[in-house]
């Protein structure tokens, strides 16, 4: 098994959607699913192309309501390339397979170089055998370019061969079955004259309501003399080529595509920019060389290796897809990170709280990308302030789902495919998303010491989020505590109390505890700013002494519910019924979408102690044991040392992992409690997309939070790296299945920290060249490590930093 290759040795129409998602090529600017170039959307194939940040909103009538949805738009398809021996049928893998003429089909994704290769041997109905090799890239060097090279050999025949190489703008958003009743026609086709250069094609379109101009150009060249024609229809333009194929003699068709939009910088007009880029681009090999070098640079910054080949291969796949979704090319685009990557249309390309799982890996390798993702949030502070004001609060209320302008994009109704019913969707009540944003700012600053970011943007986000939660928290005189009512926690299976029409729950523990923590950190952020910046910011935000006193008061007096010696998910959780887990498992097998099962039965998960995903347990994921301990103590909640073990033991069997994030969080927490079970759940999280464990959902886009989260887990949980208080704290939890783990990291302006973690040893080296030392803390030791120096200690799993 190769750590850098994802390969499929056959053609399986049933698995095609999954393979297309996993073989997506992207560069942070745009992405194209790994669909067969000759295919169009037909139920088996779905050749989607998505440009980061290009959303469009359409309205529809659903269940008697007028609903609008913003979608990440499926852009024109640059892939189309079809061929046939004259007089035969166009190559179609599905038909050839059905008729037993698809002799072989192999697909290989080279993760190290970002190249998708396809090797096919096919016999047509006339008995002519043709061999085809295709290589495809979406350039990591020039974000506007992609290329497809097709080499064809007529194995046992000679004669004319017809080829069509096209750009297809007749596409709609139809990649997710349950959204198909909703309008998906986001592109208005535009007429444009054919380019003067006969090698070029140009297609133009614009999005319907966001009016983004899109231009796609393509250049097609053939390595042998060809008769050329060009045909343009409404929304489609193509080169029609005829080549004389000679038995055994390969020839190559090279297609280079260029994509620009009206959102791009440094252009005059996108159509002209696309044409110039396609005309001037080098040939496939030249593009490939620069693309490979770009990937090589990225991988150098992502050093993370474990001596477990299969685990390493999947980690590489996850890093690959993360860097394809957000890269140096997305830094200037003002985009967030879509939960399903640039890989499909699930969740409409929206941005959730998943940065929580994504940023830590980026921060310690590509801090500029992490910063750009935080800037996406900063630019949407005005929208978040408006949302808070509309809800009668102060500060900034970030939306649960975000897209172009930062308004709340959560769907108002969702379809239960099991019952066929459209149901109200209350998930926008997950106010905790704002806490995540503030938390991410703080963690980014801890790891990078980027005080400029904190002063100019970060502290403002944190204070405005703090302001919102301080205003959301209501003082309860009888208990002398602050409470937050009418929200949802991360567990989406509980959105209301049983029997009540009003959505929302009171005192979700995750929200309340994190509120206390964020309020404290927002004040810390203010305090670490240089004096003048602090004064400026306080003036700008009109932050008064009374308000600061309120922050301090709320941070000391938030209410946290407990029952049976564990933290309660929310007030009243203890009164819910136990679910008959065994019965449901026996009846349904897979009960991850318990919400759909229960709703179809006329029931609701609101009645049961049954969670979709980690909720209370998120506290142990987001905060270190020391931090959690500190918040709870400050709030006046004394708890014994076994709180984590007890709480994990309580919620784990009551969670059905309906979100891909759930296994990840449990693996993280269990690593501190039960090594063997943690490893099994880690493998589950790792295999989630590659095996499509959520049954069909990966075909609609990868689960980027879980992908990045598994890589981060190796870094921050297995190697146990924490960036706190200006020191690199180490508390490894290396699973027995891993003998050695090596990481290369960036930390606080240091570009080369090498960490080796073995079962019996922990070593950190600071590469020479740095100008200042770093502080390391392990157990009760504090060490100053100088450039060129190294520090090591025998590993003793009993010692922790807390
Ligand atoms: C999860 C959320 C997550 C979203 C996008 C949902 O299924 O419940 O926590 O943010 O997917 O990944």
Automatic annotation (TrEMBL):
Residues 721-785 form the Glycoside hydrolase family 65 C-terminal domain. Keywords: Glycosidase, Glycosyltransferase, Hydrolase, Transferase. Belongs to the glycosyl hydrolase 65 family. Residues 8-263 form the Glycoside hydrolase family 65 N-terminal domain. It comes from the Bacteria. GO terms for biological process: carbohydrate metabolic process. SUPFAM superfamilies: Galactose mutarotase-like, Six-hairpin glycosidases. Substrate binds at residues 353-354, 612-613. This is Trehalose/maltose hydrolase-like predicted phosphorylase. Residues 317-711 form the Glycoside hydrolase family 65 central catalytic domain. The keyword Hydrolase applies. The active site is at residue 492. GO terms for molecular function: carbohydrate binding; glycosyltransferase activity; hydrolase activity, hydrolyzing O-glycosyl compounds.
């Amino acid at each position: 098994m190769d750590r850098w290759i994802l390969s499929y040795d056959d053609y399986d129409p049933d698995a095609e959607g999954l393979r297309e998602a996993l073989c997506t090529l992207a560069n942070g600017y745009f992405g194209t699913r790994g669909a067969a170039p000759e295919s169009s959307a037909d139920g088996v194939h779905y050749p989607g192309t998505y440009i980061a940040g290009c959303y469009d909103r359409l309205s529809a009538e659903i269940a008697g309501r007028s609903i609008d949805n913003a979608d990440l738009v499926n852009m024109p398809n640059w892939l189309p390339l079809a061929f046939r021996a004259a007089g035969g049928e166009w190559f179609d893998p599905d038909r050839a397979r059905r008729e037993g003429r698809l002799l072989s089909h192999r697909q290989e994704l080279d993760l190290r170089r970002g190249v998708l290769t396809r090797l096919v041997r096919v016999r047509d109905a006339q008995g002519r055998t043709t061999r085809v090799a295709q290589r495809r890239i979406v350039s990591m060097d020039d974000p506007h370019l992609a290329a497809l090279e097709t080499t064809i050999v007529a194995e046992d025949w000679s004669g004319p061969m017809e080829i069509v190489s096209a750009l297809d703008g007749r596409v709609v958003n139809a990649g997710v079955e349950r959204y198909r009743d909703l309008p998906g026609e986001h592109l208005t086709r535009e007429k444009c004259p054919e380019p003067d250069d006969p090698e070029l094609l140009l297609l133009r379109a614009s999005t319907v309501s966001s009016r983004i101009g899109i231009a796609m150009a393509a250049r097609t060249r053939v390595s042998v003399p060809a008769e050329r024609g060009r045909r343009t229809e409404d929304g489609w333009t193509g080169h029609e080529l005829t080549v004389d194929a000679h038995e055994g003699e390969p020839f190559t068709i090279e297609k280079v595509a260029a994509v620009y939009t009206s959102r791009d910088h440094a252009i005059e007009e996108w159509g002209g920019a696309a044409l110039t880029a396609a005309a001037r681009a080098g040939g496939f090999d030249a593009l490939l060389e620069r693309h490979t070098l770009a990937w090589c640079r990225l991988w150098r910054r992502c050093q993370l290796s474990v001596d477990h080949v299969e685990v390493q291969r999947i980690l590489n796949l996850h890093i690959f897809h993360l860097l394809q979704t957000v890269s140096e090319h997305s830094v200037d685009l003002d985009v967030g990170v879509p939960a399903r990557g640039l890989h499909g249309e699930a969740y409409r390309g929206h941005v959730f709280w998943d940065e929580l799982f994504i940023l830590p890996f980026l921060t310690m390798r590509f801090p500029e990308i992490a910063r750009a993702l935080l800037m996406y949030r900063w630019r949407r502070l005005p929208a978040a302030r408006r949302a808070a004001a509309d809800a009668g609060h102060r500060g900034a209320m970030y939306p649960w789902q975000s897209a172009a302008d930062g308004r709340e994009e959560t769907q108002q109704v969702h379809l239960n495919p099991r019952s066929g019913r459209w149901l109200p969707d209350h998930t926008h009540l997950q106010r905790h998303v704002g806490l995540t944003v503030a938390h991410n700012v703080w963690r980014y600053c801890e790891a990078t010491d980027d005080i400029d970011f904190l002063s100019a943007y970060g502290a403002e986000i944190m204070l405005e989020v703090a302001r919102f939660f301080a205003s959301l928290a209501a003082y309860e005189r009888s208990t002398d505590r602050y409470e937050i009512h009418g929200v949802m926690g991360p567990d989406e299976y509980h959105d209301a109390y049983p029997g009540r029409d009003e959505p929302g729950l009171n005192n979700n523990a995750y929200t309340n505890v994190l509120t206390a923590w964020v309020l404290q950190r927002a004040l810390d952020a203010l305090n670490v700013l240089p004096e003048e910046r602090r004064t400026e910011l306080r003036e700008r935000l009109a932050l008064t002494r009374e308000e600061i006193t309120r922050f301090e008061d709320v941070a000391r007096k938030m209410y946290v519910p407990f029952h049976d010696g564990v933290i309660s998910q929310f007030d009243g959780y203890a009164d819910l019924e136990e679910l008959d887990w065994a019965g449901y498992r026996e009846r349904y097998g897979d009960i991850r979408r318990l919400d759909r099962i229960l709703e179809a039965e006329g029931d609701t998960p609101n009645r049961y102690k049954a969670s979709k995903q980690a909720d209370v347990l998120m506290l142990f994921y987001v905060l270190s044991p020391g931090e959690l301990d500190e918040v709870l103590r400050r709030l006046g909640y004394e708890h014994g040392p076994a709180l984590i073990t007890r709480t994990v033991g309580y919620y784990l069997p009551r969670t059905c992992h309906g979100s891909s994030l759930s296994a990840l969080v449990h693996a993280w927490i269990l690593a501190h409690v039960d090594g063997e079970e943690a490893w099994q759940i880690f493998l589950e999280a790792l295999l989630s997309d590659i095996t499509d464990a959520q049954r069909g959902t990966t075909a609609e886009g990868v689960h980027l939070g879980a992908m990045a989260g598994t890589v981060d887990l190796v870094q921050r949980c297995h190697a146990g790296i924490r960036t706190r208080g200006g020191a690199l704290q180490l508390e490894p939890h290396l699973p027995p299945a891993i003998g050695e783990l090596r990481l290369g990291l960036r930390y606080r302006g240091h570009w080369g920290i090498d960490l080796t973690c073995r079962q019996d040893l922990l070593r950190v080296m600071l590469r020479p060249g740095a100008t200042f030392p770093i502080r390391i803390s392990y157990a009760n030791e504090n060490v100053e490590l100088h450039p060129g120096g190294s520090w090591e200690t025998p590993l003793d799993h009993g010692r922790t930093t807390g």
